[in-house]
Protein: DUF4197 domain-containing protein
Amino acid sequence: MIRKILAVILVLNFTACAELQQVVNQLPQSGTIGNTEIASGLRQALDLGIDKQVTKLTQTDGFFKNDLVKILLPEELAKVDKALRDIGLSNLADEGLKVLNRAAEDAVKESTPIFVDAVKSITFDDAKNILLGDNDAATQFLTSKTQEALYTKFNPVIKNSFSKVGADKIWSNLINKYNSIPFTNNVNPDLTDYVTGEALKGVFTMIAVEENDIRTKVSSRTTDLLKTVFALQD
Structure:
């Protein structure tokens, strides 16, 4: 009887071990893919985000008609927009917002070379940390590597864009209309720095969208390399 019980236990243990081994065999094996492939996969994911998502922002209405990144007036000037709309000047308010977004669309066209250099700089250690990090870890890496250079590049482009499309006159008209409303405090904003910051936020928001898709949706892994590398973090 004891022999029979032992036999049953051995069979159960063998079966359990076999099932466990089957599960293990189905897991991505990090030993089968090297650091070079992991780094290449991360670079490919970022390149895809830049090509697919950032390029959208450079097109007409890339910012203005994208609710994720549309640039609105800064908080302290939100009252300007509301006041103009309240007195029937919605078209003027819309034109003011459009100018801000057009300037951002112009500036983002300058971003690609900076991103390309940053993506090339990803090391093996960077790749491991990014792969096993948060769903926006690659975007965070890119932000840390490019934000300062992008700001320096974007700011004069946005300033020039304001001048090119007559933004100075548009904003002067808008603010003067607002300042003529009784019981309001006069405002005289310099929006170049604000729009530069918002343009940067928009760029990294869209890259994060693509990164999250690749990390969470197998269907977004459109190459064999992406499928292999990101299977390691599933």
